[in-house]
Amino acid sequence: MSNETLTVRFFARLREELDTEALELPAEPGLTAGDLLTQLAARGGAWSQLQGGQPVMIAVNQTMARPSTRVQAGDEVAFFPPVTGG
Amino acid sequence: MSNETLTVRFFARLREELDTEALELPAEPGLTAGDLLTQLAARGGAWSQLQGGQPVMIAVNQTMARPSTRVQAGDEVAFFPPVTGG
Amino acid sequence: MISVQTHDFDPAAEYQALRDSGPGTGAIVTFTGLVRDSGDLKDVHGLYLEHYPGMTEQVIQGLIDEATQRWDVRRARVIHRVGQLALSDQIVFVGVCSAHRGDAFKACEFIMDALKTSAPFWKKEITSEGEHWVEQKAGDRARSSRWE
Amino acid sequence: MISVQTHDFDPAAEYQALRDSGPGTGAIVTFTGLVRDSGDLKDVHGLYLEHYPGMTEQVIQGLIDEATQRWDVRRARVIHRVGQLALSDQIVFVGVCSAHRGDAFKACEFIMDALKTSAPFWKKEITSEGEHWVEQKAGDRARSSRWE
User: PANTHER family, alphabetically (chains A, B) (predicted)?
Assistant: First the structure.
């Protein structure tokens, strides 16, 4: 994992609909998890659902987080649908 | 079991302290479970505790009952301390 | 299924009987009570359990019927031991299966709470110092009355 | 003890591990979840369960820690399966032992309710008509928020 990028992971329905398990994205200073969602939604198509679609849950370094959570180089950021285990 | 008597049973601490498992008592007309407790308490000694002592639970024919419950010939009346199973 | 018995029971067999209740079962909740080393007394090394034969089974059946009316209960099993028990022995088993976990939890806890205050069992604690008939707890009465 | 695994588990072995927790244990409560034939869809004949490795274990450990702070929990065991499951298969086990039954019931139900809304598992229902990612239920969110 580079010092200038962070990893974004997708799970379950999102992983399937985006046809993507993980991405490396540039880790610009001051970036939040919400900024990442905005950037990704701008790709259009299935990616649009990341903003204004069904609820997306966020984890940063395997801990639940919010759109306002700051992210930085080396972080593991995950986006996924509301959980349904048990 | 005669038509003119009923059976009284005791359990647990009461059975031990009264040194009695069961009695046959006359089943006078109009008798209640509470009347039986009064009669038995009048025997004195350990029997006195059946009135005004620690709480006594009552069952008539194996169903929870109260002092005012009527009892009749052939009934099985039981007196016992509050239950503590489980 | 209700059993009042002197011999031990196998929770694994009880669980299997609950699991074999068909494809609509989604949740199984079980409670097992064990002889603990401290109750009314300290250093308890055994219990003696007395019951009112016949009445106990009727009362427990009534509790299962009530639980089945109040919640989705697909099957319920209750076993209560009587006689002489040693430290850490199994005393009581209550198992319930349901389509949904909320119903299984509620029905199981209700049966157990109500059994403690309405089924005619009495426990005597045995220690090296002597024996003592356990007193009914206000906490047990409160837990039971929550369901009224 | 926490395990996320593809293979089946043995509730009897889990129960035994809870029972072997010493002479102060008086109550064991277990919950087991099974694959049911109807969820969001009817005639479900299997599930596929996905999870977020690493994060699931952390979240569950956090729930056990929270339960242990709030109630008397002597030992807790949680197993969750992932991958392909068939109708009536065991999905999840939560077992708790305590001195007292109230604590064991509360801790077990809390862990299970909180797991449903905070542990990163996702369920896909499989029927002969097709597949469907299960939606989170408002009822599950409500059950979980009862504990806050």
Answer: MOLYBDOPTERIN SYNTHASE SULFUR CARRIER SUBUNIT
Strands of the sheet with D121-127, listed across from one edge: D83-86, D46-51, D121-127, D130-133
Asked whether residue B27 is assigned to any structural domain, the reply reads: yes
Residue A81, token pair as written in the block? 């649908």
> What percentage of chain C carries pLDDT values higher than 90?
93
Partner-chain contact D50 A82, CB within 8 Å: no
Residue among C34, C102, C112 minimizing CB distance to D26: C34
3-state secondary structure of C102: helix
Do the chains contact at D121 and A80, CB–CB below 8 Å?
Answer: no
Nearest by Cα to C3 from C67, C78, C59, C111 = C78
Label residue C83 by pLDDT band (50, 70, 90).
very high
Alpha-helical regions (H) of D34-137: 55-70, 101-118
Domain coverage including residue A46:
5-80
CB C50 within 8 A of CB C57: no
CA nearest to D109, candidates B35, A63, B3, C109: C109
Tell me what pLDDT residue A2 has.
46
Number of domains making up chain C: 1
Cβ contacts of A82 on chain D, cutoff 8 Å: 117, 135-136
Q: Which residues of C touch B (CB under 8 A)?
A: 33, 49-52, 54-55, 58-59, 80, 91-92, 112, 115-124, 133-136
pLDDT in tens, chain A (86 residues): 446 999 999 999 999 999 999 999 999 999 999 999 999 999 999 999 999 888 999 999 999 999 999 999 999 999 999 999 99
CA distance B11 to A76: 67
Q: In angstroms, rounded to a whole number, what is the distance separating the alpha carbons of residues A37 and C27?
A: 37
Residue B85 maps to a domain = no
Residues of chain B contacting C134 with CB distance shorter than 8 Å: 84
The CATH number of whichever domain residue C128 belongs to comes to 3.90.1170.40
**What is the arithmetic mean of pLDDT over C37-60?**
93
Helix axis angle, D101-118 to C101-118, nearest 10°: 170
Counted domains in chain A: 1
